Amino acid sequence: xxxxxxxxxxxxxxxxxxxxxxxxxxxxxxxxxxxxxxxxxxxxxxxxxxxxxxxxxxxxxxxxxxxxxxxxxxxxxxxxxxxxxxxxxxxxxxxxxxxxxxxxxxxxxxxxxxxxxxxxxxxxxxxxxxxxxxxxxxxxxxxxxxxxxxxxxxxxxxxx
Length: 160
Prior knowledge:
By secondary structure, the protein is mainly alpha-helical. Helix content is 77%, strand content 0%. Helix 6 (76-92) crosses helix 7 (99-106), helix 6 runs antiparallel to helix 9 and helix 8 (112-126) crosses helix 9.
């Protein structure tokens, strides 16, 4: 497929739709965590998810005009979820007890093992860190990994 055809509206919609994949990962990880015989190696699951996220950005980058556009489209749903989490945790002080509240909590679950490590360190320094900071770090990690993957793809495409 030619690059110009991949840059159409269909490619952009596909990129935004692929941005919902962390939700599926969150549901699977939640199911795995609830199993009695799970190995509890959540850090490995988190590393694997971030590796796959970077690979997805690398693979899907040709559907956007630039690496920046690919990263923005891939994280549109994640940004919306971060906004919902901010409303629930900072404004309301409690999570919604409906499917939207569950969705917003599970979205970043595959990345939270890595994101919680700096939060725990920061919490020791300032005397406790809010859970929302873990979500912000998870979002940032996803953006940085996707940026690395799509930038690498764009550089490889220019060198050919």
